Model the fold of this input.
Amino acid sequence: MVPLPVIASLLRRNPEGTIRTFPGKTRRLGEGKEGGRVDTTGTATGRESATREVAARMAAAAAAWLNALDPAQRAAAAGDAPSADAGSDAERRRWFYTPTDHGGLPLGAQRPHQQQLAHRLVAAGLSDAGYVTVATIIGLDNVLDQVEGWSMDWGRERGRDPGLYYLRVFGEPGGATPWGWRFGGHHVSLNNLVVDGAVTSMTPCFFGADPAVSPLLGPAPLRPLGGAEDLARELVRSLDPGQAARAILLDRAPSDIVGGNRSQLAEGNQMIHLRDIWRGHFAEPRLDELLTRLGDGAERASGYDAADHRRLALTGDPKGLPAADLDAGQRDLLRALLATYLGRVPDGLSPRADYEAEAALDAVHLAWAGPTGVAQPHYYRLQGPRLLIEYDNTQRHANHAHSVWRDPAGDFGYDVLGAHLAAFHPG
Done:
């Protein structure tokens, strides 16, 4: 096995979630032959009115929240309008899923009515089930605090804090120019862009759960991401030996999702070390050392070496088994699994109906790493044109889950912003 310091150098540090491509491999994921969505039966056109209705609700909620803030709060809550320029738009495209400063005004710095207005905006960008899941994830910080014996120390008054979920609005809600908003904290990241009065981007969209399974009174435990895990496991267990040989990339799982919190995905991206999925460094060296120890421990537990990380690296040509080689029952399972991600956003806005078309589903690939038993560390991804979904449940004895839905060619609406500026602001 390659020593951990060598693995760390191969993984390339990624401070602040910024893009970095590997030498000689600069093609952005989602570009090239996969640069556009599969043409379906016009469902995108049918979503136009829904995208405008949702955008109007978002604008009303965002304006109400901003207007309820005092000047100091508003200074933290308001960001620059979205731009197609990577430099000036860098903060909007910076996202995290660790308990770090996500940028914006945290819930804990708001009065109860302001918090309610903030939640109104968050709910405007989610389906009912999506909002319930996000609200549950926020509450899990209290549960995690208890699980850890109320002892986690991140150099602040409370280590696990459901008040540290941050909201920021970029630009003028409902205005003529593009605007957007971001909500994020530990295990939540929502990123939305509105252009010309329509919602044009909802990704990256990250949900996590720690604990992934918690006891409730009664026979069923609390599992916020249970559907995304169970359906994937059922699908991979349904594969025949030939299918499984193509879908299962490795017999053990990485310690995290491979794309991490990069603003932009690129060919060859490998897993990021835990210490680099935070906003900068801690003022206290002991906390940086703690993150390094935690990340190194997760790497040791995974058993991964440099070759394993290369095997799981992201590529423009999807790895794994294409849905075109699944039978009818397996395809139904895959559609149900996709719905646990694409159903996070309001009905009519979600692209999940696109995958009712056989050609669109055919292009989605399933890749798995790890065993298929319950409560065993595992990872999977679903990848196709304009689609990357990743899930892992590997930490705390497979009781700490991460899941993300991304559009590799259009996260943060960067492709739409460029087209908008070219059409309406030439030169």
